Amino acid sequence: MTGDLATFESALRQKLPAKSFGAHDPKYFEEPRGLFHGTPTLVLKPENTAEVAVILSLANQEGIGVVPYGGGTGLVGGQVADRKHAYVVVSLERMNRILDVDPTGNVIFAEAGVLLQDIQHRAANADRLFPLSLASEGSCRIGGNLATNAGGINVLRYGNARDLCLGLEVVLADGQIWNGLSRLLKDNTGFDLRNLMIGSEGTLGVITAASLRLFPLPKNRSAAFVALDDPKAALDLLALAQDSLGENLSAFELMNETGAAFLMEKMPQVRQILDPTPSWSVLLEISGGESFLANNALERLLEKAFESGIIIDGLLSQSESQRQSFWAFRESIPAANRLVGAIYSHDISVPLKSIPEFVTRANAALAAFGPLRINCFGHLGDGNLHYNVFPPSGRSKDDFAEQRERIRETVYGMVHELGGSISAEHGIGRLKKDDLARYGDPVKLAMMRHVKTALDPKGIMNPGVLF
Amino acid sequence: MTGDLATFESALRQKLPAKSFGAHDPKYFEEPRGLFHGTPTLVLKPENTAEVAVILSLANQEGIGVVPYGGGTGLVGGQVADRKHAYVVVSLERMNRILDVDPTGNVIFAEAGVLLQDIQHRAANADRLFPLSLASEGSCRIGGNLATNAGGINVLRYGNARDLCLGLEVVLADGQIWNGLSRLLKDNTGFDLRNLMIGSEGTLGVITAASLRLFPLPKNRSAAFVALDDPKAALDLLALAQDSLGENLSAFELMNETGAAFLMEKMPQVRQILDPTPSWSVLLEISGGESFLANNALERLLEKAFESGIIIDGLLSQSESQRQSFWAFRESIPAANRLVGAIYSHDISVPLKSIPEFVTRANAALAAFGPLRINCFGHLGDGNLHYNVFPPSGRSKDDFAEQRERIRETVYGMVHELGGSISAEHGIGRLKKDDLARYGDPVKLAMMRHVKTALDPKGIMNPGVLF
After folding, report:
1. Bridge partner list, A389
2. Taking CB atoms and an 8 Å limit, are A196 and B192 in contact across chains?
3. A164 vs A143: CA distance, rounded Å
4. Rounded Cα gap, residues B196 and A162, in angstroms
5. Residues A143, A68: contact at Cβ < 8 Å?
6. Cα–Cα distance measured from residue A294 to residue A323, given in angstroms and rounded to the nearest whole number
7. What is the pLDDT of residues B183-204, one digit of tens each?
8. What are phi and psi of A404, to 5 degrees?
9. Best mutation target, B177, B185, B295, B445, to test chain A (most A CBs within 10 A)
10. Which of A300, A430, A447, A467 would you mutate first to test chain B, the one with the most B CBs within 10 A?
């Protein structure tokens, strides 16, 4: 790419209305962890798919990089451009219309710029569930959720963003529009390009709209917050819960005591759940239709788990507000982490049976770096842990700047050795592309490059991401 | 491709043991519907992945076509080669080892040649469910199920083959081996090449092994067989069932009276379920863990459905053998169809809300061709119908040979107009590639060609399929 931005901009101004050009708001050049900073450049805010097509067609012609921008909440720098390239930001925020809700077909159609929360609400108004749920749901946009194949708290039961998408509309690198907005649950007609686009982090095209799966709104649900000795006990509880509850188990979140301590320290307004704070705790939720007696089922499960010594303390939610307080605790942990300031945050997954071994070995290995604090929490049911490393109380992450790389290598090396993933749900972006090159299968990486070249021969789409 | 088979074979004999060369068994050159016939050629039966890699590497070098062969049960001719090309058959039947079963991680590892039924049994022995289930499960092989993204009766709850696969090992067109046999439920590291391979019908490489998801074995289940007036009532019952049962609803199969009539005529040993035979019937099944009271829940649902006039007759299974007799009836319909002999079998899906309209309009349009018999049955919960067209009693499908194309165009045209798919679960193969070119999105087709060229530049993989 050797494009000239000024030429591109003047050509574009002939074709797009003035309101599709945005201001240099700093938000387009920052990301939540402060690790990447973009160089201010043209910010485009297309109103519709045809405008996106005009932008990409011209960018491809002129060799200008295109950075698609959703809600800006991504944690791997995918939304902040590499400074080396002439590029533009294409924000989907004006394309925020819900196009159709079809409760019979269990599908909702939304433009890429719709906030995740708005989709959840529109689904609920139609007596349906859109299960994708994550901490940033009030500000992330569905196009970004799909481009990064977002995960969250309901993956155990409903899958990640990929599993919730029936179809896409995508503008390809050369400006062509692929209309794949299907309502169909089953359609076996050729290569699965939908899933190729989902999780490609804006490197193959711009997702402009999606058709998404809806589910029956759970009519009965119940949650429990329980104390355990260690991750092994959490795995035993998971097995017992799956045996007893099948797919009515919808969430299974593990937390260690550091999460509670950080909340006490930085966000005392968040109510603690168990006293004393247990070494490890699990928030589990079960749900089902009208016929499912959630409270009874969860009560029986907890009784069994107490009897067999798997859990040592626990609360069963007695009201909707108590259930919400369990979730408020869990969902506030990332915010508390940001206030404390992590040396490094690892979004990893390992095979379920290796989780106890991973936690024991990683904690031991990191002890060599000093009395670090480890906040280990996440979606245990999916094998996905956020293994986040913090300085000792009274010290700052900057004190550990020199050890940062070695800490990261220690953790990732162990994850890799156990057959795990260095990015379970956040993606690769710009942050982890060297890690991908290091730990990824070389044959897979070569295939990825072939596919990238086939679909974006000039390499204009999100340059610097993945590759 | 302009390869010389004799040169290829002599090079191959240097590198592979004699037992990896098979006999010209006719089964490799036929397919169940008798529409395609291959020309006898070299049949290779590699024992392991390394041998597959040797075959593909040499084939790629010499420009020889490769037709991967699983159980031979596919219904669109994907397993029977195009006569125009020099080609070999690569049967995975000797690669039939189950490599690992991990009940903690809910994953099973199998080579591509393992029979689907063997995977189901091994999962059940570990107190787990592998939910993929279809009529040919005793003879189809998992590699073929994945290559064609097979569907079946449990898609409503568990998804199709794609949704049940965690990872693949694939030999690419040039003989390189991609080792993607992951145990991980979440792994967001780069393009989704697993799903690109799944459903690519052998046109991008040979799947040699897979890691597959297991689920809790349902501890309680119950089935009902009910009579309804029309497909609209079936949709109403589906909505009621989802409301009341959520994801505990695991199967929802629609049948019309023709299925029952064909069974009476051709397979009288199969027990009829309802007397008199209803115009339409639904077999629904619900299941869950120990805590789920399946019989009570289904009984309440049926009461509600009777009260609101949705169903007019029905049986709730009172025993496991009765539940099995319901399924034996449903699962015998395809065999009866084969004995009657269809003029054309359409494996289609349409948006759920359009199903009543489709059935009414298609029946009316086909009436113009004479007193045809329509056997319409399938996975209503997925919007997937098998809309199969038969001659009147006493006449043969050959009497309608001339009308065949027009019948097919009438049905597919209507499906396309309603936003449906001309192949819901059987794939494209050789049978429907013209239909794909006609009804598929041209931008998608162009992307598919780019991807095919990127990953199989010499076009050796399953030539004549899809493109």
Report:
1. A344, A374
2. yes
3. 13
4. 13
5. yes
6. 13
7. 999 999 999 999 999 999 999 9
8. -55, -50
9. B185
10. A447
Q: Which residue has the tokens 């349906």?
A: A128
DSSP line for B373-394: EEEEEEEGGGTEEEEEEEPPTT
Q: Give the N- to C-terminal CA distance of chain B in Å, as an integer.
A: 14
Among B138, B131, B200, residue whose Cα is nearest residue B165: B131
Distance, in Å, from the CA atom of B31 to the CA atom of B334, rounded to the nearest integer, reads 15
Q: Which of B88, B68, B52, B91 is nearest to B176 (CA)?
A: B52
Candidates A176, A183, A185: best to mutate against B (most CBs of B within 10 A) is A185
Residues contacting A337, CB < 8 A, separation 6+: A262, A345, A375, A388, A390
- Residue B334 Cα distances to B99, B342, B383, angstroms: 33, 10, 18
Residue type (1 letter), A145: N
Collapsing DSSP to helix, strand or coil, B441 comes out as: coil
Q: For residue B463, how many other CB atoms are within 10 A of its CB?
A: 24
CA distance A240 to chain B (A): 10
Contact in structure between A67 and A464 (CB atoms under 8 Å): no
The answer to ipTM > 0.90 is yes
**pLDDT confidence of residue B246:** 87
* Per-residue model confidence (pLDDT) at position B1: 52
**Between A104, A198, A349, which is nearest B187 by CB?**
A349
Closest CA relative to residue A68, chosen from A92, A103, A51, A32: A92
Determine the distance from the C-alpha atom of residue A145 to the mean position of all C-alpha atoms in its chain, rounded to a whole number: 7
Token readout for B181 is 């046999």
Give the CA angle between residues B13, B17, B20 to the nearest 5°: 90
CA angle A312, A314, A315 (to 5 degrees): 170
Beta-carbon contacts of residue A189 (< 8 Å; ≥ 6 apart): B421, B422, B423, B427, B428, B432, B436, B440
Q: How far is the C-alpha of A365 from the C-alpha of A349, rounded, in Å? A: 18
Lookup: tokens for A41: 């450049």
Q: Is residue A216 helix, strand or coil?
A: strand
pLDDT level of residue A82 (50, 70, 90 thresholds): confident
DSSP A172: E
Is A249 a residue whose pLDDT tops 70? yes
Are A439 and B204 in contact by the 8 Å Cβ rule? The answer is no
CA A191 – CA B17 distance, rounded (Å):
35
Alpha helices in A166-211 (DSSP H): 193-197
Q: What is the pLDDT of residues A192-213, one digit of tens each?
A: 999 999 999 999 999 999 999 9
Report CB contact under 8 Å: B148, A172. no
When CB atoms are compared, the residue of A288, A297, A423 closest to B188 is A423
Which residues, at least 6 apart from B209, have a Cβ–Cβ distance to it below 8 Å?
A: B49, B95, B99, B109, B110, B111, B112, B168, B169, B181
pLDDT reading at A327 higher than 80: yes
Q: Residue holding tokens 């045996």? A: A243
The per-residue pLDDT for A1 is 52
Angle at A238 between CA A233 and CA A243, to 5 degrees: 125
Which residues contact residue A214 at a Cβ distance below 8 angstroms, ignoring those fewer than 6 apart?
A: A103, A106, A107, A108, A123, A126, A128, A129, A130
Q: What distance in Å separates the CA atoms of residue A430 and residue A37, rounded to the nearest whole number?
A: 11
Residue B338 is which amino acid? R
Give the whole-angstrom CA distance, residue B166 versus residue A46. Answer: 37
How many residue pairs from chains A and B have C-beta atoms closer than 8 A? 328
Environment class of A400 (CB within 10 Å of its CB; exposed 0-12, middle 13-18, buried 19+): buried
Percent of chain A topping pLDDT 90: 94
Please give the structure tokens belonging to residue A451: 């596919």
